[in-house]
Specification:
There is one protein chain. The protein has 554 residues and is of the alpha/beta class. The chain is built from 18 helices and 8 strands. Helix 6 packs across helix 15 and helix 14 packs antiparallel against helix 17.
Length: 554
Amino acid sequence: MSTSSPARRRDHLVLALACLGSFVVVLDATIVSVALPRIRADLGFSAATLPWVVNAYTLAFAGCLLLGGRCADVFGRRRVLLAGMGLFAGASLLAGLAADPALLLAARAGQGVGGALLMPATLSLLTDTFPAGPRRARALSTWSAIGAVGAASGPLTGGLLTEFAGWRWVFFVNVPLGLVAVAGTLALLPGGSRSGSAYRLDVVGAVLATAGLTGVVYAVMESETVGWSAPEVSGPLIAGIVLCGLFLLHQGRWAAAPLVPLSLFRHRAVRGANLVMFLLGLGFFGAPVLISFVLQYVHGAGPLAAGLGFLPAGLAMFAGAKAAGPLTIRLGARRAAALGCVLGAAGLAGVAASLGTGGSSVAMIVLPSVVFGFGTASAFTPLTVAATSGVPATSGGVAAAVLNTVRQTSGAIGLAVLTTIAAAAASGSSMQEGLAHGYAFAFAVSAGCVAAAAVAGMLVLPPRTAERLAAATGRVRGLDGDPVPGAVALLVNPDGGRVVRTVTDETGWYHAAPTAPGPHLVICTAPSHQPSIGRIMADDTPVRHDVVVGQVGS
């Protein structure tokens, strides 16, 4: 008990550190929205450039996520957490002090780059600290729940700070949080550790990925105002797609140390989780914005009232994220993710049905939003568990970054598509009635995307029996080919320091169950025989590793 308590306390502190990093990144994505009118009045933004106070952050964040994930694997989580949080806090201070639009937009982009370093590093830190299984599921559900708190509290916190302290405090609030995170990183994570990649970073791949994703996300954002056929949309979109294609070609054929090892996608769970996340992101991430629009433009609520109107859904998201860990442990990642998506689709369909009646009330909007908030938030943890299962520790950061990139990109595309659908479908005898009709159609499409995510989850995610790490088996023989019964086989995880011990049976067979994914050493010893050391990769694929031990003196 006494030996495990310090380790447990450290694990809890690491979880708190990861949650703090996630919280400030998610909070900053939503806290600024209600402060935009005051920012425009004070700094002289035009109507066309004001949305870029939000877009500059989102664009830099989405474009640099893959690079941030790989940096965590190559340079070590401690260095990347310190660099990311330092950049994020410094850019937040600069944004709060900004005296003109150009400086504020540059600071917002700096915050986005800092967030792109932070988010995959915090997730990778958790998957490295907590072994695959119930403890990891509980840790990830807490991490997701704190992120949900950040998303839900952003508009309300931003409204309160803007109203009583001024808009600059929506940025200044990040500075003390950043200092606490820096101090925690220095205290908790050992210095001097780095990946075995010898500081090799795929610079060409980083440029291609960042430029390609930036082009795609920029085009999606611009499509909301100028349409999909405009040259300022089609040009960056085509260029972004071409660059992303070149990136994949570079990763598969030319890169010596790929930014995203394509071998990650050999795992069925990784492929499936990213597909389900893409469909879920298309349908869900635009929904909170649409809810805000409905409350303000259909029901006449003010910005702060709209933020309060989304609060029940935000609380439901927190509850769903907290319930996700036990659900994942009980049902497995596949069924837990599918169940969450089914609830999310039902809630979104409920909002669409309410708006479609033409006589919706605020209560009729808020109540189904609680259902989709709980359901969709409960799906994120099992998808994260699946996307990082069977992934070596040296690729944990990039696996987390791929999932976050899919989530951010699908969310940006979904928001642009849903708002375009709502505008195109708006019709009615009055402005409010027409807007209600358009938003109803958009929520119906959103519900369809999340329902498709539920179906895809059941089809492409592995069943629960395959979610556990496959066992390592093999036969221990002597130089003469005879089996060696009673030999001790040790399965050693160098990253986590965990050892599994087993003994061969009368026919020389051993059977060992890994405790975490990644590379393991197989050490076999037997009386009167020389020890043997081999290496295996533990994942969801069964491993056969036979061993030959020589006799002493032979």
